[in-house]
Amino acid sequence: MSTTPVRTDAQRAVITGYGAITPIGNSAGEYWESLIAGRSGAGPITHFDASPNDVRIAAEVKGFDPLLTMDMKMARRMSRFVQFAIAAATEAIEHAGLADIASWEPERRDRVATVINTGGGGIEQVTMGSDAYREKGGRFVSAFAIPALSPSMGACMVSMKYGLTGAAITQAAACATGVLAFQDALRLIRSGEADVVVAGGVEAPLLPMAFAALSNMGALSKRNDDPTHASRPFDKNRDGFVFGEGGAVFVVESLAHAKARGATIRAELLGAGATADAFHISAPEPTGRGAAGSMTKAILDGGAVIEDISYIVAHGTSTPLNDLTETKAIKRALGDHAYKIPISSPKSMVGHLLGGAGAVAGLAAIKAIETGTVPPTINLDTPDPECDLDYVPHTARTNQAVDRVLINGFGFGGQNASALFGKLR
């Protein structure tokens, strides 16, 4: 039985809106529709000429128009990750019924915080600025290069667009980054510092240098001739992840605030946990102890017990080490219950969005709670015998009893984060 901590409605955090920019859809609705249909967003790289490279595939955002949510001047000055953040935040705020938030009284906007996490920020600005300096000289380096590359600029620009004068926070924690945005939002609500938090994670890392580095590390799939089948979490023949871009943003409110304005509540953000492996710069600790610890912390923080968990949105990167370690970690955290629940990986369709990965995982969890549908892990053709849990191969499952959902994000340097969502009770 759950042991939910006694918290007032002002201390409970709920999700009232969401937005997304992803390789399989430029809205939350498009993302979810593609996810449950098992549609891959992977394809040949179009951002640059990748023909000389070992890796020539990626999960790119397609047809994105930043001018739908910002003017031309801002679009030219801001990095792609900021453009994603503003687009997803705009959708989330409108979805939550807060389109008028910029006109709230100043004292009320003081209690609206912004948390936009990212792993690398505007890293393309380093390349652009360096090229301009080398080819033309220092006078041709953009005066906005430093703000544009700053990881904090996503949170800052969202707060500026809507006049949100609560805290503006950014964490960079590699692939755990997006999940930690939920932990930040939860702490801001529970502490009473904020009534509303616009929170999420985004990334726009698809640059030649990044591909070269990850390829040299052996982290990326080299299935260049079959990109839609390249990302295959938990499959015996997996050979690395598909590099992607995008993310998601949410409106997180105190339950008291949401009730007072008659908001539609999508799910409750129950708990979160984080640990460090303290083991290796890129490899996960092989027993899964740290990853299991973040799951256990999230369950306990949310006042749940192991048997409450009805679905896990896995980190599931499609790398040999991660998928095996995550399987061990889930078993370590949940015991025999690990074999009784569905587990799936959105990365089989969207690729690895780094700082955006945990955010789109959160969206999958919330939509599963809302709809009772569990999205699949596509391309799981030959299950790895060492990854022997129920990874929902190929096809989504409808009419599922989805009540409490864990999401995982595990990053380079051994950074582990998990969050727990549930139906409002």
What does this structure look like?
By secondary structure, this protein is an alpha/beta fold. It folds into two domains: 9-260, Peroxisomal Thiolase, Chain A, domain 1 (3-Layer(aba) Sandwich), CATH 3.40.47; 271-422, Peroxisomal Thiolase, Chain A, domain 1 (3-Layer(aba) Sandwich). The chain is built from 14 helices and twelve strands. The strands form two sheets. A ten-stranded mixed β-sheet has the order 5-4-6-7-1-8-12-11-9-10, with helices on both faces. A two-stranded antiparallel sheet has the order 2-3. Helix 3 crosses helix 7 (153-162) and helix 8 packs across helix 14 (357-371). The two termini are 14 Å apart.
What distinguishing features does this structure have?
single chain; 425 residues; alpha/beta; Peroxisomal Thiolase, Chain A, domain 1; two-stranded antiparallel sheet; 33% helix; globular
Report a brief summary of the structure:
With 425 residues, this protein is α/β, with parallel strands linked by helices. It has helices spanning 28-37, 72-77, 80-95, 106-109, 124-136, 145-149, 153-162, 177-190, 208-217, 255-260, 289-301, 320-334, 347-350, 357-371; strands spanning 13-21, 43-44, 57-58, 112-117, 168-169, 196-203, 246-254, 267-276, 311-313, 343-344, 404-411, 415-422. It has 2 domains: 9-260, 3-Layer(aba) Sandwich (Peroxisomal Thiolase, Chain A, domain 1), CATH 3.40.47; 271-422, Peroxisomal Thiolase, Chain A, domain 1.
How many strands appear in the DSSP assignment?
12
Q: What is the CA–CA distance across the termini?
A: 14 Å
Report the CATH superfamily of the largest domain. Thiolase/Chalcone synthase
Strand composition percent: 15-25%
State the helical fraction: 25-40%
CATH overall fold name of the largest domain: Peroxisomal Thiolase, Chain A, domain 1
Structural class: alpha/beta
Can you tell me the overall shape?
globular
CATH architecture of the largest domain: 3-Layer(aba) Sandwich
What's the Cα radius of gyration? 20 Å
Can you list the strand order of the major beta sheet?
5-4-6-7-1-8-12-11-9-10
Number of helices: 14
List the secondary-structure elements in sequence, H or E.
EHEEHHHEHHHEHEHEHEHEHEHHEE
CATH class of the largest domain: Alpha Beta
Can you give the mean pLDDT?
96
